[in-house]
Specification:
Four copies of one chain form a homotetramer. The first copy, chain A, is of the alpha+beta class. The first copy, chain A, has a single domain (4-383), classed as Chorismate synthase, AroC fold. Helix content of chain A is 27%, strand content 22%. Chain A has nine helices and 18 strands. Chain A has helices spanning 37-47, 107-114, 131-147, 176-184, 192-207, 235-243, 265-268, 339-360, 372-379, and strands at residues 4-5, 10-14, 21-27, 65-68, 70-71, 74-75, 80-85, 151-159, 164-165, 214-221, 249-254, 272-275, 278-281, 289-290, 293-294, 299-305, 314-319, 324-329. Chain A has a five-stranded antiparallel sheet, with helices on one face. Chain A has a five-stranded antiparallel sheet with strand order 9-8-10-16-11. Chain A has a two-stranded antiparallel sheet with strand order 5-6. In chain A, helix 1 packs across helix 3, helix 3 (131-147) crosses helix 8 and helix 6 packs antiparallel against helix 8 (339-360). The first copy, chain A, is globular, with a radius of gyration of 22 Å. The two termini of chain A are 42 Å apart. Chains A and D meet through strand 1, helix 2, helix 6, strand 11 and helix 7 of A and strand 1, helix 2, helix 6, strand 11 and helix 7 of D. Strand 11 of chain A pairs antiparallel with strand 11 (249-254) of chain D, so a sheet runs across the interface.
Chain lengths: 388, 388, 388, 388
């Protein structure tokens, strides 16, 4: 299922870059979750284009319209649907792309996969614009997690060929100052200097008609231990499955990640100690996950974002209609670096995967009965056979 | 997953009776299926309320707006989404229902399941109105099947306590005259007399502030043999899973169905003979399905539809807020019999389940390449390693 | 997925009638469920062949060997696997069936579906023998449900063309005397006379080289209200999906079922009253399910079992290898009526579907910590970020 | 679902390190795939312990017994099941682990997740031994892919803190000499020198009572373009989901992977050219995947394997029963480096994911009819309604 994710809470994303609208349906959300639409919009604005010279010139409000699943500011428990209208489309920019696939884009494999019937305009269903409904669903998941004591934070850990690096997130416990810094700086970095240096590097790529990539680090603080499953449905598998659904992601790692392969076991193992009657690991090379299951430490992971493939420079491609080589200069509006806008997307993806895992584990707290009628109904829940 | 159906083609339905809109997302539709929107609308009109004195007074166009997944009248292969606005809502009719659950409705179990946060207005997500998006998805499936030589037909086989019966559908091969009759008569029946008698019975129930149920028979002609799977994913399992998703359905049977339990094996077995070099069963007690797999005969099934639970008569219920017994007279607009409007819903459900099974089996024919560019791309599909 | 069922608790069945062994893997069982192997064996013996002159002469112990998932008599929470060796196979009986498909069997559609590679011996994967691993998984589910206060009971409600009828199960609350009678009589019936009459009818069919079918009724007592989901994942959908996985089942109905279509709404609606501060329906035409969700009354359903297609009489078929008509007399050992042996299978299927629904709803009670070490670990479960 | 993977071809793995047996059920394999058991055994032997001084002293044949799904050396199309008996178990080695969780292992989160009922012996279901049934399923997938022109190869790309590096696999087309070298050397490396250096490093870790990790690179040659889906079900998502199911994997990347984040777009984009009338990328930074869909180039990916957490040195842990700090020296037999044995596991995981994707896409070639009877049946497949 291309555009469906989740087990207990299931997300279905639809839309194309230049279709009438894009949106999502979310089935299985627990009933009674409070959704603060203003905070959700503020979250979505972190992803939205057009805020800054480093991003595409396309400007849209990206305001979701909720069609169902919310009554009086709380989830009903039945499917939630939201759509975002595609107000600002310029399809004529893209006509050439039906014939001449862009290097590094899905244009060519999509031609094979969909036999030429795919929506080509703006990248169609492969567009980064489809991360907007992911952020709607994930933004609600972030609020749901917060209500359960879980906070998800991401930042740009590294950017560009020069490997401009930010401070890492605290791997042991949440640092509220880091959170505030990330939201305050010119790019989502803990360090203001790193943010400014990254911003300059992106502008240089823009001037160069080129693009740069980077690495995003994301942490979830406050998760209980014991969430997730062994083998194919562990927390790593779930986060990786949703994260590789974000366009341009080419790598995902947890805790020490690829670096763990370069440590000895005696260095990489996180020792346990008792603290206040509870078990607590003393380090977090595991990224909060052992055997696919949370160990109570923060879940920490990173994703590698490739440089935006749409660049202004001339590139070698082919003219499929003519069956001949061709040169391509990608026109239209494109980000020289997608990494800053992908930071809230990483948070959204992580939050959705974790909410799904918590609900599946029966570990998401139930809302209190909505009113006296519901309380009576719940009290009646078991009135079955003899003796029960 | 409450509102998600399908394996290779996946339907996600959202909306509540009185939410902003209802709709569906369909993921996995093959690319290049022609969708005739006018024919789809004509199909939807067969389900829509307000056409006739036997149905609810609520009148709405039920015109879907396609948000994505269709370009130039053909499916793109990426998720298709459609919404129907809920223009005509009268939520004040339903306020009482939060406290006093209607007998025969989901009101009470929904209070328990959703802890009082469910949308109560108009039955919320449990409303028969949710069959509209099912008919959008199923109406597209009907067109897709037709392009592959499969025709789905349904009618009212029986109605009311008097068991007013229509002629059965031809179990061996499609009868175009039956199809035309069903669409021409005052209710969807092969026999005009049966249609008129059923119509009179429904009007009598209405006058009586009561309701009646019935049995719908549905056949799919032209399916190839070999589709479906043993055990839990057979054609029977799939149709039953989607059919029990239609509100008020309380029974599903295939071929001779419950009647098969009253035959001897020598009567119930369908003999095989060779005809024109091909194997052909000589009867169709099996309803076209043996071991969960199509045998090449028409798939025939029936579903029992209970009488509409919303009736004007006084009924015994409880006041959940007060924790006391109460009397309820259901107000609002309700059909005295849902059966006629459920006939196209049965066709839609059957078509969707069969399209999903055909696609999963790799038996749905691929569309030709859309243009010369697509043809070149498809020719390039295998250019891999040495020797391949 | 042909042979996989379930959402939170997932059953995968494997094996063929005459393969080395048959068995099942069950993933997602809650940890700590006590499994009484002797009681499980007693349950399996109710399904096993060879107990009685009404059943096939094939005699096997049908004793499962547990490969994993149980330690010290309790489930571990990781996948449980069990196999039953196929000791007594006589494959030469079936060689002819590769060429001459048996009417009423899956032989012919299986030839198409599997292109001739399927295991033909004894019906292969389509054999009723595959209900043995379903009964292993379902027998464990029955014990798990019992620990949660839920009891599942089934009996033969009706048998044969003469419609020999048993007393119905109590639709309002469990009747322990009924349960005892069903286990005590010559066939699983509440009434001894019905059991004896049915038994005589089966013997008559045997003498006649023919077969008979019947209807099985099954009830689950003690389920809480609020379990299940609307639309496609309701309790009806789930039970229907697993029940149609039992060979020879051609119809499934809930509560008043097809009979509901012949009632008026005022008769079919189950009134609510307060009893001891709790809501309680006053009748059970709904079969304990409204809108797909349990209403707290017993879940009652029936399944129609067709007459065994393997009969000793000459039947018309075709010789696929010769491409010509042929006459077939089925040899080998076959039951003249599968209905009695299908009674525990119905209980197993129902129990598995309900356990899955309870676990998915987070409504299955957690086992206490196994020991002091587990208690410390559970106490440590939340030691995450600041303030949590 | 912890131990289930796949969409069209579904794998269910069961067993614990010291349970009676371990094994797998595979549902959805196309019918008619030839399975060469001797070649499969040779593949399994590459993973098996006890071959070499670098691996654990536990010696077992790891010979699967096929219970179902294969007749006359070909898959039947119905579920295939295989078990491997656990002959050589020494459970007493592990009793202490119930109380004292090993750092870096799943012992502690498993205590929380399973409330103390999990099988502790040998790591239970979390043991690397569970990769044996994954290799049975994947080994069959490798043979199935080979019949479709797809070859999967893996090697150790890097090992240890010193980053001992092997030659990379050819990213553009298969190199048969590389394949032969990998199988011939002392460890699975293209370069004999790299193999010997890595082997020396592992022996040093063993002598040091410590362990080392590494990075495995895997390539699939010969895949057609157009396989996979956008967003959450792309080839990257699928391979990542199964690869993170292999114990000790902490990172997965495709093509240039994390390195892509350090390239400019003009460097990372793979140009297209026409060659012999077909489109062909000129480089493979994408690892054969664009937008989740194969582009016809080799699929190349890497996984990071952490150092084995079981080490002989004293480590800090806790005694859960006593609620106090404790020191742990892991006894029993453990590999100082799991990387060499994980190489065939990576091949198996990759092959299974790709076979699943090919079958789901309808792109796996159907086997010819098994015999004349099957040919007649297939010719009869469509004999439905008028005109079809």
């Amino acid at each position: 299922m291309s555009s469906t994710f989740g087990t207990a809470v299931r997300l279905s994303i639809f839309g194309e870059s230049h279709s009438a609208a894009i949106g999502c349906a979310v089935d299985g959300l627990p009933a009674g979750i409070a959704v603060d639409v203003a905070r959700l919009q503020a979250f979505l604005d972190r992803r939205a284009p057009g805020r800054d010279a480093t991003a595409t010139a396309r400007r849209e409000a990206d305001a979701p319209r909720f069609l169902s699943g919310i009554v009086n500011g709380r989830t009903t428990g039945t499917p939630l649907a939201a759509v975002i209208e595609n107000a600002n489309t310029r399809s004529s920019d893209y006509d050439e792309l039906r014939r001449i696939p862009r290097p590094g884009h899905a244009d060519f494999p999509a031609q094979v996969r969909y036999r030429g019937y795919q929506d080509v305009a703006g990248g169609g269903h492969f567009s980064g614009r489809l991360t907007a409904p992911l952020c709607v669903a994930g933004g609600i998941a972030l609020q749901a997690l917060e209500a359960a004591g879980v906070t998800v934070v991401a930042h740009i850990a590294e950017l560009g060929p020069e490997r401009i690096a930010d401070e890492p997130l605290d791997p042991l416990s949440i640092d509220a100052a880091q959170q505030r810094s990330i939201l305050a700086h010119s790019l989502p970095c803990v360090s203001a200097q790193a943010a400014d240096a990254m911003r300059a590097r992106i502008m240089a790529a823009k001037n160069d008609l080129d693009s740069v990539g980077g690495i995003i680090e994301c942490a979830a603080y406050g998760l209980p231990a014991g969430i997730g499953d062994p083998m194919f449905d562990g927390i790593e598998n779930r986060i990786a499955q949703i994260a590789f659904g974000i366009p341009a992601v080419k790598g995902v790692e947890f805790g020490a990640g690829f670096g763990a392969a370069r440590l000895t076991g005696s260095r990489n193992n996180d020792a346990f100690r008792m603290e206040d009657g509870r078990v607590r690991p003393q380090a977090n090379h595991a990224g909060g996950i052992l055997g696919g299951i949370t160990d109570g430490m923060p879940v920490i992971w990173r994703m590698a974002v490739k440089p935006t493939p749409s660049i202004g420079r001339a590139q070698q491609s082919v003219d499929l209609a003519a069956g001949a080589n061709a040169e391509l200069k990608v026109r239209g509006r494109h980000d020289p670096c997608i990494v800053p806008r992908a930071v809230p997307v990483a948070e959204a993806a992580c939050a959705f995967a974790l909410l799904d895992a918590l609900v599946e584990a029966g570990a998401y707290p139930a809302a209190p009965p909505a009113d006296a009628a519901a309380a009576t109904a719940l009290k009646s829940a078991r009135f079955g056979g003899a003796g029960h």
